[in-house]
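Lecture 7 notes: from sequence to structure.

We start with a single chain of 158 residues. Read the sequence below before looking at the structure.
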Amino acid sequence: MKEEALAAAVPAPIRRLGKIHHVAIVVRSLEASLGLWRDLLGLELEAVTDIPTDRVRIAFLGVGESKVELVEPTDDTTGVARFLASKGEGFHHVCFEVDNLAEALIRLELDGLELIDSAPRRGAEGPVAFIHPRSCQGVLVELIEVPAGPAWRSLGYR
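Now the structure, written as tokens:
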């Protein structure tokens, strides 16, 4: 019964998405946060990457078939920096895999969800797009296309 209530609370289009690719945590310092997530909790560091277009520095740590993404703002004027200033360190978003990101965005918009990105854009690990928290019970949702999907070619991934 409890699971049914939780499932009913999640919008139907979200229930049709693939596995969780990662959960993202906003942090003040990647180095300090790696001391917890990598060194104390034992998650394997996969990559640390600067994303100049989003003005963040990120680290991906593997856990099972998913990842934890640590996100450090590199510019105090960004949305991530404002999030950190107002809410502090902690959960930022959840990312689900989809087979075809452009098709998923069309379907979700037709189903009434408010999109932040109406088309796939470049992300650190593939084409991504975001769904507004207003449509997902206050949770920012990211979608990422599975490797070698149609948006990979159009966005210049190899």
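The chain has six helices and eight strands. Keep this in mind for problem set 3.
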